[in-house]
Structures are given as C-alpha cells and as structure tokens.
Prior knowledge:
The chain is mainly alpha-helical. It contains three helices and two strands. It has helices at residues 8-16, 25-29, 47-60; strands at 21-22, 41-42. It has a two-stranded antiparallel ribbon. The protein is globular and about 25 Å long. 7% of the residues are buried.
Amino acid sequence: MNSPRANLAPALEATLGGSRVLSDPASLASYAVDEIIPSVVAIPASAEEVAEIVRFAALEKLSLIPSGARTKL
C-alpha cells in the first residue's frame, strides 16, 4: 500500500515540473534540518507557485520549511 507521502513528488511535479521537485535520497540529504531529511523538496520559480505549494501542504496537512536561496530558514 502506498503512503500519502509516496504521492508528494508526483503531485508537486504536476504543478512545478519534474526539474524543480527533488525526491531522490541523495539530493534530499543535503536539505536536512536538525538531521530530519525531507520527503520532497520543491523549488518554486514564482510567488504563484509558492502559493500553490502552501495550498497543497495545507490540504495534505504537511509541514513546510521555507528557505530563501538556502541561506536562511
């Protein structure tokens, strides 16, 4: 049985495109916060895409960690 988390990447890819959604373990490890590795990383290119990601996360009851250019949380 697939967990809801398994469907995160495809759902975000539908909005952002595959090149701006990271889901492979090697890439995700570099985005760890306090040693917690995210299930998926989304890289929006516009304010509208950010809004869509927030909307998606709210509907799915997911936590977000926003980061601007990966310099600060």
